[in-house]
Amino acid sequence: QVQLVESGGGLVQPGGSLRLSCAASGFTLKYPAIGWFRQAPGKEREGVSCISSDGSTYYADSVKGRFTISRDNAKNTVYLQMNSLKPEDTAVYYCVAREGYRCYSPTRYWGQGTQVTVSS
Asked: How far is CA 45 from CA 15, 39, 94, in A?
């Protein structure tokens, strides 16, 4: 059974940092592409970042230069380091695994989400 378990969300002041983690298990594909989506109240879901099996990365324009995605294949864990956080980064963040090794593969599995709130 595939599982994606997110952790690391919380409340942070503007300009602060958080690191999200996504622990993956149960995949038949050894190292699928995994990424992060977010959804703020009243807004559409947005793709934030993705990392492929070979380490290639993708970032939405809104987070480029502030967020860094990485993966530790030995631990089956993907991380999203978020720096210089802004109030508009407030959202529920979802870990998402793709069907294949590349970030252009269709999304397949979703975690339960973790809340990130940026507020003073």
From this structure: 23, 4, 10
Return the residue matching tokens 């934030």: 48
Q: Which residues of 53-66 are buried (b: 16+ CB within 10 A; e: fewer)?
A: beeeebbeeebeee
The residues, any chain, with a CB within 8 Å of residue 2's CB and separated by 6 or more, are 24, 25, 26, 27, 97, 109
Q: Both tokens of residue 82?
A: 């978020």
Q: What share of the chain is helix, strand, coil (3-state, %, to 5)?
A: 0, 50, 50
Measured CA distances, 89 to 9, 33, 93 (Å): 12, 23, 10
**Does residue 29 carry a pLDDT above 80?**
no
| pLDDT tens column, 104-120 | 999 999 999 999 999 99
